[in-house]
Amino acid sequence: MSQKNPRAIAALMLEKVIYGGTSLSQLLTEDSASDPMVRDLCFGTLRWHERLTAILDILLTKSLKSKDKDVECLLRVGLYQVLYQSAPEYAAVNETVAAVKGLRKPWAVKFVNGVLRTFLRRKESVLHQIEEIETAHYAFPQWLLDSVREAWPEQWESVLKQSNERAPMTLRVNLSQNTRDEYQAMLQAEDIQSTVHPLVPSALILEKPMSVFELPGFNEGFVSVQDAAAQLAAFLLECEPGMRVLDACAAPGGKTGHMLEHTANIKVVAVENTEMRLLRIGENLERLGLEAEIVLADAGEPGEWTKPGFDRILLDAPCSATGVIRRHPDIKVLRWQEDIAELHIQQHKLLNTMWDLLNSGGRIVYATCSILPSENEAVVAAFCESHPDAQVQPIVDVEWGIAQQYGRQVLPGVDAMDGFYYAVIQKK
């Protein structure tokens, strides 16, 4: 695969995502995906998937066979380049046609060339046509578009628009090593421009994304890459020295590391259910020079690791990830409406299990990167109704997010943050 044209590599990866249900993050760990062009083609094509699909529905007289979906995905790549990249249109078409060789389907050369050149001739008319299709106009699948519109009747269009933007690269400064101003000065000395996040004390926003290995002190643990909204968890936990803290569903370990940076002398147990994800936690903590008890277990199934209970628990619950679509556009292809009900059940189960592990007077921070109330406020409301000893603490004296009856919701792109939900639940 590594010998192929990057457009062909992207097409084969997109086929696995769109028709195979594989996550793009998983595929991007392959060597062939290290090419920045491959990554851009995959991210961009998935970001505008609904628009590109609507265009193909107009251009193709009949659907391609299952065995030729790689050719269809190459057409998506070609259309993405023509519409969203700065290269001349005919050059983009020629390069896409040349990439057919990488698919080893000689018959498709003439076909791909014909479809893309037809689009160039009819471009204005086709684009006008697809604007009449709601899913194409907003570049969102219908079920999710409807869900966002129902959940956020005043902000839904902004939520969809922001979710189609590229997310900034945000850093979390290790405040146990340097102040934020000191680290920003280190960036400035390397001619790396950044701005201070106005609402999150540990966050800096880079003017341009870059390799982490170009960041001063990255290997020494001076800094990590983490969205500003995700950095709020450590502050909301309000850990104190000597406390025993559980980070359930902890991979890749960003929040675990932040807890340890934020409060000295706490005992953190980080739990994950696969060895690969557990390895990521260990690698992150090692780079930061921090230690936690890392446990391979299902957080929903208590064991020896849960004793003698916890003073603080972060439950970053499995969710639809609809708040981080700008970072993971494949969510629009991989998620289905039926998934939400299943996740809802899982979230309830985990929250109930965590409650039994929490010491009296302790607190749970329930978090998701979802913007759907059914995974957020509805879960916390139902939990509190069935647990008289649970008290939701209002999150006050903050300027981020929208106050809900239970917890606060950050919407994508607002204050340069991903979409996140937080609720703080105290055990009486």
Keywords for this entry:
428 residues; alpha/beta; 9-stranded mixed sheet; 4-stranded antiparallel sheet; 13 strands; 43% helix; 15% strand
Number of E-type strands: 13
Largest sheet: 9 strands, mixed
Specify the overall morphology.
Answer: globular
The share of residues in helices is 40-55%
Stretches with pLDDT under 50, minimum 5 residues = none
Provide mean pLDDT, rounded. 95
**Secondary structural class:** alpha/beta
Helix count from the secondary structure assignment: 17
Topology as a string of helices (H) and strands (E): HHHHHHHHHHEHEEEHEHEHEEHHEHEEEE
Strand content: 5-15%
Descriptive overview:
The chain is of the alpha/beta class and 428 residues long. Helix content is 43%, strand content 15%. The chain has 17 helices and 13 strands. It has helices spanning 6-18, 24-27, 36-47, 49-59, 69-84, 89-98, 108-130, 134-138, 142-151, 156-163, 180-189, 232-237, 254-262, 275-288, 331-334, 337-357, 377-386; strands at residues 170-173, 194-196, 203-206, 223-225, 244-248, 267-272, 293-296, 310-316, 358-368, 390-393, 402-403, 408-410, 420-427. Strands 5, 6, 7, 8, 9, 10, 11, 12 and 13 form a 9-stranded mixed sheet that branches. Strand 2 and strand 3 form a beta hairpin. The longest helix is centred in the N-terminal third of the chain and has 23 residues, at 108-130.
